[in-house]
Amino acid sequence: MPTTSPTELQPQGPTSPGGPLRRRGTADDAAGLGRSRASAFVAPALVMIGIFLVFPALWTLYLGVTNWRLTGAAAADPEFVGLDNYLDALTDDRFLNSLYLTVIFVFFSAIAGQMVIGFTIAWVLRLSSKRIRPAVEMLVLIAWILPASVIAWLWLALLDRRSGTLNTILGTEGTAWLLEYPMQSIIAFNIFNGTAFSMLLFGAALASIPPSQLETARMVGAGTWATLRDVVFPNIRGHVLTVMLLVTLWTFNVFTPFLLTAGGPNQQTEILPVFIYRLALQAGELGKGAAFSLIMILINLVIALVYLRVLRERRT
Amino acid sequence: MRTFRSRALAAAVLAPLLVVTACGDDDEAPADEGADDQEEPDDGEDEPAEAATLTISKNSIRGGKSTEEAEFIEDWIIPEFESRMAEEGVDVTVNFEGSGADDEDYKTALALDLSTGAGADVFAIDGIWVGEFAEAGYIQPLNQIYDGVDDWDGWSQINEAVQQNMSFNGERYGIPGGTDGRVIYFNKELFAQAGLPEDWQPTSWEELLDAGRALAELDGVIPIQLNAGTPMGEATTMQGVLPMLAGAGARIWEEDSGWQGASEPVQQVLDLYYTIYVEEGLGDPLLQQEAAGRDNSFLQFSEGQIGMLLEGDYLWRSVISPDSDLAPMENRDEVIGWAKIPAIEPGAGVDGQDFVSMSGGGGTVLNPNTEHPELAWELLTFMESEEALLERHAEQPRITARDDVNAQLIDDPLISYIAEEVLPITFYRPGFETYPQVSVALQEATAAAADGTTAADAAADYQATLEGIVGADNVAN
Description:
The complex is a heterodimer.
Chain A: H1 4-9, H2 19-28, H3 34-63, H4 73-76, H5 84-91, H6 93-125, H7 132-145, H8 148-159, H9 165-170, H10 177-180, H11 182-207, H12 211-219, H13 224-253, H14 257-261, H15 272-282, H16 286-315
Chain B: H1 2-39, E1 52-57, H2 67-87, E2 92-97, H3 103-115, E3 122-126, H4 130-135, H5 142-145, H6 160-164, E4 167-168, E5 171-172, E6 174-176, E7 182-187, H7 188-193, H8 205-216, E8 222-225, H9 234-247, E9 253-254, E10 258-260, H10 264-279, H11 293-302, E11 306-312, H12 313-319, H13 332-335, E12 336-339, E13 341-342, E14 355-359, E15 362-366, H14 373-383, H15 386-393, H16 403-409, H17 413-422, E16 426-428, H18 435-450, H19 455-470, E17 475-476
Parallel strand pairs in B: 1-2, 1-3, 8-11, 10-17, 14-16
Antiparallel strand pairs in B: 3-15, 4-5, 6-15, 7-11, 7-12, 9-10, 13-14
Helix pairs in contact in B: 9-18, 10-18, 10-19, 15-16, 18-19
């Protein structure tokens, strides 16, 4: 931020004589605190970040090079194993499979699911009546506001094999949805869970499109698709990227599908967070779990970096 | 202005620090009290106002898993113990921390508690966890926690083999809670409909499968449910793989050869799974994959939808007993029969046995970090006293650890059967730190076989996993 603010202020400078000097001073030190006091203000936040973010990350890095376990001799006395855990990850079928499942899960539930459905709802509601819009928004929001454990319970009741609601409605008695269609089930579950966020952001984005442009499009006889392509998307590209980043990262890290399938059956829904939980806590391999966690943090960083790069290119 | 700024500055810097220190205080306060108590445990009696608090933790909970045990602790053990100690002038409060989780999750929670120096004063663990908990330093030999342990008169009532369940490297880590045995339960009504005898006793796996084939003719009945897969955890190993492996002539670990890899007996067991779940469809493979599969198998068995179920005496006394909360059966005694687990062929079991079983058992240990070791030991021995066990098991008999109690208690037909017929032919799991990991590898192999992987492939995968756990040198060829 400090690098961008002076450049934004400068164009206004020349309008008042003697202004540029004073403005430059305030731009460097807007609050007039001086370097040391300003640092002191920032220090507590930095300390907090250090304690709760940097230290755990470094600690994870350290744990990842040990064979630390939850129980047994390696719990009392972990040994240094170097990069073994990281090398294991890259050759471990279960880890690679889990990574693959995570990509599938993120693509279908976050990008194809939450974003597309969220946008569609926002687009359709844009023109709907004053009564329908709040009602639909409320329903979608409820799915978002409810605690995940409650929603998981509702979905367990919905998909239950013996007396589930879905089987009763469809007349497919005895279908074990969570076992026969495990990935589809948790994708549907996650779409249900998170669509509201996309809907809200897209709703706000659509409201920011100049109505004159939409009017013009209509007057020249543009169809829905042409309007979306030529008017709406160019206007909300930044919003789309923001939603995509947030939803992708959240979905990549989400653990709640564990409540439905616990990673099963036979590891078919073992997305990365679930895999790491099972490895570190259920199987007790804390060292390996730490190494795999760090790999996951790196993947998160890469996603965020790609996003920032794209966003910057758009701005310039 | 200047002073205002510097004060604001100070406040801004201090406020978060106050929050941090406040959090720290919260954590440290109980530990400080604990340190004080430990320094003066002997002259503590001079200050009767100082009330001690003990916590018991078990994987049972009122209204849920093993509700009778939880109720007994809350309604009898705790009030009795508190009032007796009060008569001696010791003010003690006992809390019960119940849990209704799967055993593996209960173990994770325990290990996490203990690894941070916390946890209940007195808690229950499975016998096979003793090794890994002891190696991690989470539990200690009882006589290192409290001096008077070896003088307890109860030890003479617990035979050496049962004490082994809660021992490691020749040291006693806890008081065993008893032992158990496994049989094949069957539903006599379904057997009658399928034309099978009421006093059925298979002598080979083929006869077991034949009975399953006969039951398969009935509508809506799952003939055999042989535990498989990881969601059932140790139940798969104890009520599935290991008894069958013993029937195929192998122990999972042998003194002179090591762990069983992809040997012929292991492949025979996996082939049995393949036959039951894939080839002949005699069992329901989905049930084995459900997160709550074991509870559902209990429920379906109690409702007459499962013909044969291999289970421990736990099923009889805690799950389908008429007063159970899980899957009560009013007519249990008339409808449910049981048979010994046959070897693959007569005489082909371990040591040439015709029939086999597996036994295990948990026990109760002390937390090495307890603030009141003497009182905790007092509580533990009270829980395992003749009086308490008789009170606890009068209505619901089981094979307890104590001979004096068993002699007065066991008149239940199934429990007597296990004590007399099954315990002489039973086997125990090896008490190694690595056993629980091997157990998971076996569960994964059965999951694969029940899901359509051939026995040879499933066994090869298992062998690879096993070598990763115990080292290739320790796998028998």
